[in-house]
Amino acid sequence: MTGKPLDRLSRRLRIRTRLGLAFGLLLLLLLGLAALSVVRLTGLSEALNRIVDEQAAIRDSVNEINRNAESVARKLLVLMSPDSELRVTAYPEIASANSRLDDAMQRLALVLPPGPRSERLADVHQRLAEYRASYVDVRDLIERDDFQAARAVLGSDTESALSLFVGAIHQLAASEERAGTAKARELRDQIDADRTGVLALCIGALVAGALLAVGVTRSIVVPLKRAEDGAELIAQGQYGHRIEADSADELGHMARAMNTMAEAVGEREAELRRLADVDLLTGLPQRARFIADGDRLLANLPEGERLAVLICIDVDRLKAVNGVLGFDAGDALLKGAAAKLATLFEGVAAYGRLAGGTFAALAPVIRLDHGAALAAQLREEVEHKLSWQGQSLDLSVSLGVAHWPEHAPDTEALLRRAEQAMFEAKRLRQPVAIYNPSAEAARALHLSLLSDLAAAIQQDQLRQFLQPKRDLRTGRITGAEALVRWQHPQRGWLPPGDFIPFAERSGRIRQITDWMLARAVRTLADWEAGGHPPLCIAVNISTLDIQDQSLPARLAALLSEYRVDPGQLQLEVTETGLMSSGTDPIAVLHALKSWGVRLAIDDFGTGQSSLAYLQHLPVDELKIDRSFVQDVDGDPRRQALLRSIVGVGQGLGLTVTAEGVENERELAVVQGCGCDLVQGYLLARPMDLPDFEGWLSRTG
Question: Which of 11, 64, 205, 594 could anchor a disulfide with 29, C-beta 3.0 to 4.6 Å?
Fold first, then answer.
């Protein structure tokens, strides 16, 4: 329980305070340990000195007693001398030795502590007293001149008492030596115990220091790790994460600062995300948010009402308004459309601005056929007259509709379908178009063919087919029309109708035309080299080709390379192509004509060319479209029309060819109307070059 208050207390302290306290505490531990060691060492040293001094004093006293006892023993022998003078001089010396002996005994008594050791000293005093009593007896006997008795006492009692005294002194010295040794041993044991204690204290200090270091380090590292993990989460975009700040130190301040930063960055990013999701001009959701709103709407539809329509709206003529009146006028148009959209769908549907003048709305419906009614209502609401700076602006829109879940499973895919329908409405100039899956399949096929077509030209997948043309007056084959076929490696033979229109729209038709011209010229050169009778090959060229100013020069170089007579090559351009050409094609046609190439108008009667325009074209042949030939034998009015066309063509000095003749009845009418040449299935279907040459050989 005390750990938590201490932990809370430490967290209130700054890191530098904690570190200072930790180091101070460690220093105090070390200083206390050092002081204790010094005190103990001083005490042990003093005890050792006392033992040494005591032993030295005892040893000195014992030695002094021994010396004086030996001196007394020698002087006692002098007392036995019959010479009285010697005895007289010996008495003071014996007295002096006894006095020194007493002094040594007193010093020894002072050194010895009370206790058993003092008791041994009392025994020594007893022996000394016995010796002195015997000495007094001997002296008295000598003074009475009883030398015989004195010698007897001296030889027995006095020497024995002196020997016992000396023995007692030696025992005392040995005992004191043993006592000193025991004290030294105790002191050594104390030193060992103190060393163990100091070592234990050192270990305890180290452990305490380590625990203190771990505690201080953990109080710093754990918040740092927590802050680091929080910073990583914030860096990953989790701006709602908050770092725990449970301390008042620098780390707590840092954690709170990082939390404040995360909150501020999160708010700014949310604002940026909101601005990124919202169109600044109209205030409507942009594409990504519209898709998200749409997905939520679809997910929350009740089980019995799981139908919806997505309407894509595009403002017409927005570029024209921006270009003529400026972008402010265009912005006014868009704001008006957005206001109408918000009024109509607020709270009931998802809606937004996709880009430019394109808007979208996703609304739930009871039945899918309600989508057309909703689109009509939307168009009626959005289209309006807008007055801007005195200018009256007409707002018109094109709409594309896609059904959920029939056309797509989610908002994003449904939006693509609706956009495709909107583009189809613009292309067909219709106000509203509903998504058609078959049209998308055709577009997917065209997109696939776009890349395949380039490979077909490079890898020689195209084939030249020839359909013969016959002169009705002579019955001879005068030439053939060259038609292109595509032998696709996966799809097999593809008729021209599957790829020629697409090639014209994508611009690939020029590459096909160049391939057809090169193949036709090469065929003419091979026929001439093989000795075949001269025939003319006609090649169709597109609207883009007759706008190409470099076509005459390229064709002239090709004819020169293969040394082919230009009169054997005929170029056919449709009447519709002539009229739809963006530039005047007459200059290109005259340039081709100047090189000697023959020219023909194909599918005549299907366009809107006037006779005045026709007479300015440098053409040699007029090919009547098969729509005028088909079933002509059963309709007198069509026969009269055919006869008139033949008359006009021949009146302009042109050779007239009837295309698409498929039976003898049609041939009879065509021949009766005066056509010069005939072409069609009745004569022969288109054939590749070997089959065509074989057919020529068989027909003669």
Answer: 205
In order along the chain (700 residues), what is the average pLDDT of each group of 10 residues?
52 66 75 76 75 73 73 66 67 76 75 66 76 76 75 75 77 74 78 77 77 72 74 74 70 74 74 71 89 91 84 84 77 84 83 88 86 83 70 78 90 92 85 81 62 78 93 94 89 79 77 92 94 91 86 92 94 76 74 92 68 76 90 90 91 92 94 94 94 88
The DSSP symbol for 278 reads B
Sheet of 308-315: strands edge to edge?
350-355, 358-364, 308-315, 397-404, 432-434
Largest pairwise CA distance in the chain = 213
Chain centre distance of CA 643? 77
Antiparallel, parallel or unpaired: β 569-574 and 598-604: parallel
| DSSP line for 362-413 | EEE-SSTTHHHHHHHHHHHHH--EEEETTEEEE--EEEEEEEETTT-SSHHH
CA distance 242 to 260: 9
Integer Cα distance of 512 and 504 in angstroms: 10
CB 108 within 8 A of CB 61: yes
Q: In whole angstroms, what is the distance from residue 652 CA to residue 442 CA?
A: 43
Give the Cα separation of 27 and 215 in Å (integer). Answer: 17
Q: Which two tokens mark 11?
A: 């967290």
CA distance to 215, 454, 468, 520, 582, per residue, from 548 (Å): 88, 20, 29, 20, 11
